[in-house]
Design a protein that fits this description.
Length: 390
């Protein structure tokens, strides 16, 4: 490439622990940068990422959305790694229970669960934010909604984490994910039947669609994988980022106590500043010119959501957590265009309900030093100690 290049490997441990200076440097280099070590292009700035995501005919997904060939090969056929007409079929299959109106009917149930989780933490005085607070709600709720047999319910979090490791490159984490993903695929093929699924669950609904001929049975395992893989880690990540940033700023906590209507915007701001999924990739379907630089046909382009969401030209003082940020909802953490996250409404509702429960029950909190989760694609905390004040 005749344009800017950078040698950083975004999947190195040191970069995963502190990626933000690297994203800032890449944005400064330009809207498209050749990643020397990875052999990929990267879109670094907000407008370029957003426009690339919306142009699904130029930047295609059916060759895979991972950062290397191996990961892409193992993704093909999933919603995130398909184009029309398959993508349309998969999306129409999995979306009905995830639509805004459908999700909103769950609000009382989700708020009750969130209230109980926070009440349990209140009894402890000090708690571990990820295992005690961020994980229980999606695990209790989503595992029940997906409706897998016991072995699947018990392993959903492990399988989802492995899927996001494979979403990156085949470093040690990517390679360790291979047998875990193989286990998930074998389980879905061998053990998931209408008789073993929870009646009325999302997965059971998909098998019924196949049984009555509304969808090809071949679609079923891919739809179920799409329910498993993105539904847990991303929400857990965003909850962790909210607790860390709000707990580090007493004024923010008090604003939410005084004005609960800020909870949804706070959820969006936590998602923006944390950006649970760092990037997905696309392939160019034809030669493309970006900022005067030529990308060849079939080039792999990494859409750096995390970098785009801290673009100062869109989000002034982007490294600051501001629950009153007027354009927080413009973030690209859910993607854009036809591949926009199908589960975004459920994730936002879960986070909003937990924010309401926390800020109404807890006078204030202080947070300790977080431990970064070492995953190729998910930006999250593995541990975050919290102490309740008052």
């Amino acid at each position: 490439m005749d344009g800017p290049s950078d040698p950083v490997n975004l999947y190195d441990d040191a970069v995963i622990r502190d990626p933000w200076p690297h994203y800032a440097r890449l944005r400064d280099l330009g809207p498209v940068v050749w990643m020397e070590t990875l052999g990929n292009y990267a879109f670094t700035q907000y407008d370029t990422v957003r426009n690339g995501l919306r142009d699904h005919e130029t930047y295609i997904s059916s060759l895979g959305a991972a950062a290397d060939d191996f990961g892409c090969t193992h993704q093909r056929g999933n919603t995130v790694a398909s184009d029309a007409p398959r993508h349309t079929t998969l999306r129409d299959t999995i979306s009905p229970p995830l639509l805004r109106d459908s999700v909103e009917t769950l609000r009382p149930q989700i708020q009750n669960i969130a209230d109980d989780i926070v009440a349990n933490c209140m009894q402890k005085g000090s708690f571990e934010a990820i295992t005690d607070l961020a994980q229980p709600l999606p695990l209790m709720l989503v595992r029940d909604l997906v409706g897998l047999p016991d072995f699947g319910r018990e392993n959903m979090l492990k399988w989802a984490s492995a899927a996001f490791d494979m979403q990156g490159i085949q470093n040690a984490r990517g390679q360790a994910a291979r047998p875990v993903i193989a286990e998930m695929k074998e389980f879905i093929t061998r053990d998931v039947t209408p008789d073993t699924l929870k009646p009325g669950s999302w997965s059971h609904r998909v098998t019924e669609l196949a049984a009555c001929g509304e969808i090809d049975p071949e679609i079923v395992p891919f739809a179920i994988r799409d329910y498993i893989n993105p539904s847990l880690d991303t929400t857990i990540s965003a909850i962790g980022h909210f607790i860390f940033h709000a707990g580090s700023n007493p004024d923010t906590w008090q604003k939410l106590k005084d004005d609960p209507s800020l909870a949804l915007n706070a959820a969006h701001e936590a998602i923006r500043i944390g950006t649970p999924i760092r990037s997905f990739s696309r392939r160019t379907s034809k030669p493309v010119e970006i900022a005067g630089h030529q990308l060849p046909k079939r080039a792999r382009v990494m859409m750096l959501y995390s970098s785009a969401n801290r673009d100062e030209t869109i989000f002034p003082q982007a490294d600051e957590f501001d629950i009153e940020r007027r354009n927080a909802r413009r973030h690209l953490a859910f993607g854009a265009g036809v591949h926009m996250c199908a589960g975004m409404h459920l994730a936002l509702l879960e986070i909003e309900c937990l924010i309401l429960a926390m800020t109404q029950q807890m006078p204030a909190v202080t947070v300790g030093t977080p431990t970064i989760a070492m995953n190729n694609s998910i930006c999250a905390f593995a541990e975050l100690p919290v102490h309740i004040q008052g």
